[in-house]
Write a structure and sequence with these properties.
The complex is a heterodimer of chains A (190) and B (207). By secondary structure, chain A is mainly alpha-helical. Chain A has one domain. Helix content of chain A is 75%, strand content 0%. In chain A, helix 1 runs parallel beside helix 8, helix 3 crosses helix 4 and helix 3 (33-63) packs antiparallel against helix 8 (127-158). Chain A is globular and about 60 Å long. Chain A starts with a helix and ends in a 7-residue tail after the last helix. Chain B has a two-stranded antiparallel ribbon. In chain B, helix 6 packs antiparallel against helix 7. Chain B starts with a helix and ends in a 6-residue tail after the last helix. The chains are: A mainly alpha (190), B mainly alpha (207).
Chain lengths: 190, 207
């Protein structure tokens, strides 16, 4: 059951290629595989952590009847978590901080993080399911950004892309083809 | 007279910038998530576009009003709080008056907060300019965004469902292109649109 949910959120309901979330950083940072990996790992970490923190907070909001404010509370939690994580990494694990510390501030505005928190509300998950779903979504996003970065790196060397599509334009076409492939995991059904 | 013309020029330029030369989606490639995720129906695209326009205008004006009071260290969090207050307003408005659209958009209304356009305008423009210009700037960015959303959604809705604003315009035996209603359709349509517009306006990225 939990493994099903994990595979589902990595592949068949991939948050980047099926739900189209987190596109701005995906397009901006996928110019080389190394940066893409750093950003992806940072996202996995933050998504899992914030979902685990937001879940009890949401239950608290529900208990007090103020769940309308969930967006406001979630975004503050996310901003605070990212800030704390950045400071802790810088202080305790500097090597890790040097590897992907620069990506952390960008994550606050990565819609994947907020979306995962909003989706567990919509889908009514319990705590274990929320954690699995959050981790799976993070891994799915990591997979997508590394795939795109790998293709772009190769493409820069060998392909002759039309002038108007160079840079960010071609990424959409790559993403479209990848999304088609990922839909293949489920088959067409509505 | 000269003063009026000068003002007109500046307003006009801000407006033109947002719609055309600095169009948030085509040139800067910002705010893509919602541009792709909600554009399988024209009505969703219009609702999303107006929602974003309202949030950009209102939050830019607010940020600009309090810009001299925000310490620069906490400015991002302050913007977030301001923006999310307006997003909650939009969400409640949609739920109250357009429940069908609200449920179709789902979590994507909440995700207006992380739409880079809103944050980008607050940081790049509203934090430095007086209120009246930020309103125009917000309107221009929002409308530039809405324009692209509507174009993409017209193509996708016609191909995917054979309808436009829920009115059937294709023949009844039109085979629905299911893929157009899903993620790949959005990617392809927006990619080709960006290509077309860049080719027309001779805007090319280096490399």
């Amino acid at each position: 059951m939990i493994i099903d949910l994990f595979i589902e959120s990595v592949l068949t309901r991939n948050i980047a290629l099926v739900f189209i979330l987190g596109m701005c950083p995906l397009i901006a940072i996928s110019t080389n595989v190394k940066n893409a990996k750093g950003m992806g790992i940072a996202v996995v970490l933050v998504v899992t952590l914030t979902a685990m923190i937001n879940y009890p907070i949401y239950r608290l909001l529900q208990a007090t009847g103020t769940e309308r404010l969930n967006i406001l509370v979630f975004i503050i939690t996310i901003a605070a978590t990212v800030q704390v994580l950045e400071m802790a990494l810088e202080r305790f694990i500097p090597s890790l901080y040097n590897a992907f510390g620069i990506f952390l501030p960008l994550i606050t505005v990565n819609c994947v993080v907020l979306a995962v928190s909003l989706f567990f509300v919509n889908r009514d998950y319990n705590f274990v399911e929320t954690t699995t779903f959050a981790f799976g979504s993070g891994v799915g996003w990591l997979l997508a950004i590394v795939l795109v970065a790998g293709i772009r790196e190769k493409m820069n060397r060998i392909s002759d892309v039309p002038k108007g599509l160079r840079g960010k334009g071609i990424v959409f076409i790559i993403l479209g083809i990848l999304a088609l492939a990922f839909i293949g995991f489920t088959g067409f059904s509505f | 007279m000269k003063l009026i013309r000068l003002k007109y020029t500046k307003w006009y330029n801000i407006l033109k910038d947002g719609l055309h030369r600095n169009n948030p989606i085509v040139v800067a490639v910002l705010g893509i998530c919602s541009a792709l995720a909600v554009t399988n129906k024209v009505e969703n695209a219009i609702a999303m576009g107006f929602g974003v326009t309202f949030v950009v205008m209102a939050s830019s004006a607010t940020v600009s009003l309090v810009r001299n009071m925000i310490p620069s260290k906490v400015r991002m969090v302050t913007y977030m709080v301001i923006i999310s207050a307006y997003v909650i307003l939009v969400q409640m408005f949609l739920q109250a008056f357009f429940p069908a659209i609200a449920s179709a958009l789902g979590a994507y209304v909440g995700l207006i907060i992380t739409n880079c356009i809103v944050m980008g305008r607050a940081e790049a423009y509203a934090a430095k300019n007086p209120v009246r210009y930020t309103l125009i700037d917000g309107f221009a960015s929002g409308m530039g965004y809405t324009l692209i959303l509507v174009i993409v959604s017209i193509v996708r809705e016609i191909l995917a469902f054979g309808t436009l604003l829920n009115i059937r315009i294709m023949p009844l035996d039109w085979p629905n292109w299911v893929v157009m209603a899903m993620a790949p359709g959005g990617f392809f349509v927006l990619g080709l649109l960006i290509w077309g517009i860049r080719e027309m306006s001779h805007f090319y990225e280096e490399k």
